[in-house]
Amino acid sequence: MAMSSLRQASRVLVRSRVARTLTRSATTSAFHSTPPADPTSSADASQSLAAHYFPTEPDMPRLMTSFPGPKSVEKLNSLDKVYDTQAAYMVCDYQNSVGNYICDADQNLYLDVYAQIASIPLGYNNPVLMTAAQSPEMIDAIVNRPALGTFPSTLWEQILREGILSAAPKGFDKVWTSMSGSDANECAYKAAFMYHRAKQRGKTSEFSDLERQTTMENASPGSPDLAILSFDKAFHGRLFGSLSTTRSNPIHKLDIPAFKWPKAPFPALKYPLDQYETENRAEEDRCLTALETILQEWESRISAVVVEPIQSEGGDNHATPYFFQQLRALTKLHGILLIVDEVQTGVAATGMFWAHEHWNLDTPPDLVTFSKKFQAAGYYYANDDLRPNLPFRQFNTWCGDPSKAIIAREIVKEVRAHDLVTRTRQVGGYLYEHLAELQSRFPHLMQNLRGKDRGTFIAWDATDSQTRNMLLKDMKGAGINIGGCGTHSVRMRPGMPFFSRLSQ
Amino acid sequence: MAMSSLRQASRVLVRSRVARTLTRSATTSAFHSTPPADPTSSADASQSLAAHYFPTEPDMPRLMTSFPGPKSVEKLNSLDKVYDTQAAYMVCDYQNSVGNYICDADQNLYLDVYAQIASIPLGYNNPVLMTAAQSPEMIDAIVNRPALGTFPSTLWEQILREGILSAAPKGFDKVWTSMSGSDANECAYKAAFMYHRAKQRGKTSEFSDLERQTTMENASPGSPDLAILSFDKAFHGRLFGSLSTTRSNPIHKLDIPAFKWPKAPFPALKYPLDQYETENRAEEDRCLTALETILQEWESRISAVVVEPIQSEGGDNHATPYFFQQLRALTKLHGILLIVDEVQTGVAATGMFWAHEHWNLDTPPDLVTFSKKFQAAGYYYANDDLRPNLPFRQFNTWCGDPSKAIIAREIVKEVRAHDLVTRTRQVGGYLYEHLAELQSRFPHLMQNLRGKDRGTFIAWDATDSQTRNMLLKDMKGAGINIGGCGTHSVRMRPGMPFFSRLSQ
């Protein structure tokens, strides 16, 4: 398509349809939707949540300039002299952002359904989080930052139990905290490797002299040739171990040395899933068979399989509960740990608090990692054997950050108090339905809409990469900040306040 | 030595000498020391800094129970059910800690010269940092945590320029921010690898199809077999790339796969350095020769050498400016980048703001990493070619944390306002002198005292590992929280308020 046709097509979609649908979802109270089914949530809470959170939130985007605005451009040029801004879209005035709306340096207010790459849970300047940010506990956590592994605070257990642990997925009762999603995954990988070797060696056995010597040379057996298996198009982070399991896009990996770890095919399903059950089952079986072959034949031993419930950065690729049930069965059969990476899918985004709750597994995964929307990062586990047999093995200076765990606690409380999981499910259903209508009317512009019954974790494909990128830019021009993923997909990652207004 | 003799020896050292020396250094105003030479610091500031910071700080430890206290033990047992506490010494009541003194759950107050593994810069509950923690900018940074690479805030440039960048070592004017020391080092390694390949390929050249394909398989040339060289006994972190350069202790590395990267010998010098100049020069030359051989002959190309100015975790091992000057020359000669890891040595700890300023290099290192005492983490650089040629290469969701950068800014201001670099130098001189006296009187208990003219970055060797561990425990029993490093060394890592009281 010529550039002018592309631009025109993109604008049709943006101006007349998508922007309006999203804006109305976020801001109009006229939509019909049942209030939360949970009888414990009060009528008051269900009716006035948005007003309670953000009384000054506007009803629609407020555009003062074209995108990007001149002040954003000027500030980016200045910042770029000292800080790499190549990936920056705009400079934001967070103090003037509110709820679902992000404010830029030019005082444009965009409806933000990207939310800092899926990392703002309860909207900008959420008053509950602002109160938590000024609490004596928070000030303490910031000024007296502890080395949690060696000098935990008197408050630490309570912060964990009331927050991160109270939201633990079914079957999990312990946590190890870290700093980011990449860090959380790498700590989980380390736990898996130590577990694997302890099973081989015997948990209470001493390390051999040979192991002690060779590990100082980065050589086997002390530094063993063990592997983590990940899936094609997976994204698990950017540090050296996590990047070795990331397979989303060459630009994430080029020029960086990687471990020779295996990848298995991830199902390439047809959407909507319920119309292609037979084909999709065959595709999932094909991938499971390929996976089992790798588990049996890979040159090094595989300690764990890591998987996202929905591959996010790699293109919002779904698989069915069947696939994950079989994956759990296969990993158990082969004595391999299953790590579920909920860094992007977790914290109420998919209509469950954790996306893997959609799978109805017989036995839970071995480790579940989290970060992003939770602000705090880390992994859940239950099996005591996943805790190394000696101190200073799963360890670093800070071992996480209490200031983030305090915010996580408030998030859990708010999700529970306002039943934001149910609300997300409802708004997601509404939004999916309306986007499906748009898709049927603009099949040349929107394809493979996906995320039905997965809250607002919704995406679709543009015709190609160029059209997608133009759409993302035009959407900003129309007042909507929305993100891309994969080669030519558009993804929605709003915070939870986006969900909250539908129920009014 | 039998356990009873060990215990006795340790107690002699603790009770009668070391504890008293440290306590007096921290709390007595009777010591003679010149006020800061800097004529711009006001007499008032130099005389009343400690009183200004911490009017309620005690003059000596306050011990209510033996170590560890019963409440610490009880709380550790409870916390351990949900969080790994194997490495924990005690549970701390940070809200009741003050200045140089850390309070535990039993309300014991210990003089803390370990300071959260060298990570508390200005004492517990420092009022300046508490004010910063309650500022509108901080609340904004906590509640509206930005993805700095894509949506930086209007405040970000100013926060960097007034803080992290204003403390940049000579020759550096740009920064990339990250989350921890390990993360900072890994980002620096990634910058080095991308730089290296860009030099080979030509900076503006496109990636080849083969590179794009192979990197998705974790294979060369897309994921090239390049290496970072580190030194024997180095510590650079715990993630998979940084851990591959860490060579401090098997327990840090066992069971974790590692890259097959080379290590060079680090000089094993004799102390005090000025008494063994000839022997030490020969030892440094031996190591430099070995290094050059590796640079020339290692099986894979080496993109960078990473080095700590003083190897900290690995045993407080020093080298002379000559060694580092030669290292800089060698790396330049071979077209290899030099990364200086100032995670533990930086931020005024050694009597300079950055420890590598002691070296008087002709040309600065290529990258300098920081974290810990700065709270914010990242790396400095100057050469534009160290910035990748495309967006989303040096990238992740958060790219650091403004809340930490705001604290770093306050730290820089305080260091400058009270000339804490000079004060550290003075107190370090005093402390070294008195510890040297102790060493001469107890040569069977204290050996290889080191850190002369390196601020309070001071360490010594115990007779053996068992004696050292007993000393660390007995010191806590005597009210001093002090740390170990290497196999049998004791290290001092006080915060800067420790330095401040000497000048009164």
UniProtKB/TrEMBL annotation, chains A, B:
Residue numbers spanned by region Disordered: 25-46
Cofactor(s) for this UniProt protein: pyridoxal 5'-phosphate
GO BP, one annotated term: gamma-aminobutyric acid catabolic process
Keywords carried by this UniProt record: Aminotransferase, Pyridoxal phosphate, Transferase
Any one GO MF annotation of this record: 4-aminobutyrate:2-oxoglutarate transaminase activity
GO CC entries: mitochondrion
Annotated EC: 2.6.1.19
Enzyme class: transferase
Reaction(s) the record says it catalyses: 4-aminobutanoate + 2-oxoglutarate = succinate semialdehyde + L-glutamate
Subunit details: Homodimer and homotetramer.
Xref: NCBIfam families: GABAtrns_euk
Family classification: Belongs to the class-III pyridoxal-phosphate-dependent aminotransferase family.
Name of the protein this chain belongs to: 4-aminobutyrate aminotransferase
